[in-house]
Amino acid sequence: MKILIAAEAGFCFGVKRAMKMTERVVAQGCGEGEKVYSFGPLIHNPQVINRLKEKGVEVADRVEDIENGTVIVRTHGLAPQRMEELRQRVDHVIDATCPYVTKSQSYASQLHKEGYHVLIIGDQNHPEIKGVIGFVNENYTVINTVEGAGKLSFYPKLGVIAQTTFNVGKFNAILSTLSEKANEIRIFNTICDDTFVRQRSAAELAGQADIMIIVGGRNSANTNKLVEICRSIQPRTYHIEEVQEIENIDFQDVQSVGITTGASTPDWIIADVVERLKNLPIHSAVT
User: Fold this and answer.
1) pLDDT digits (tens, 9 = 90+) for 138-197
2) Are 158 and 187 in contact (CB under 8 A)?
3) pLDDT tens across 242-285, in order?
4) Helix (H, G, I), strand (E, B) or coil at 253
5) Which positions are catalytic?
6) CATH of the domain spanning 13-97
7) Which CATH code is given to the segment(s) 100-191?
8) Where does 2-10+194-286 sit in CATH, by number?
């Protein structure tokens, strides 16, 4: 059985950057009686979050839960109002927001200031989108389907941005339905480069493998989109969060296994998955 690993597996740029920033804070330490917090889980990977907890990084979900110390803003970003609350609460705030998310926030703010109704294509419950909403006040709509686009009201000026990890194909499909929804439409494609390349790579691998294994947190939006894309090509697509879940997969008549990961899955988890596959009672080769 061949084990095929997608070229784009592992941490994305934004996650690598956030992890380096966090590790630097941990290494430097805080003053006596101070703590290191991440405001919300730094990234969407429970194993990584647990490792950070072991190093003393606590997850705070409310400003009120934070005492003296340093706060690291998660990769998904925050609304400006919440950022200001943190700065009022503690002296040290480290902004680990992914630069692609920061750019999306900037475009949202620009569109709002220029009088556009801001259409955000993404998951309204995702922390990234909750943060972006803080830059546009009430002048916005969030959708994530073509059907949602069809129900939009008419606006004189419509400005469009996307969740940075949104499905590229779905984004384009939604855009194709908007021509009759406004007199003027301005579009910023804020899907990050890593997302586009990772989704394309996953789709190509799904067309080659007998089984696809997508490794990543179950609460990871970009991981779930990879599952959706791969499953549309290879029905035998499995989403696992922990390596032992491989034992629940039937590998009968499988000649090749494709592996890709969400943007928050570290290399050491990929290595664990490969090792577990190699130890199955089937001859394996890694490519």
Assistant:
1) 899 999 999 999 999 999 999 999 999 999 999 999 999 999 999 999 999 999 999 999
2) no
3) 999 999 999 989 999 999 999 999 999 999 999 999 988 754 45
4) coil
5) 128
6) 3.40.50.11270
7) 3.40.1010.20
8) 3.40.1010.20
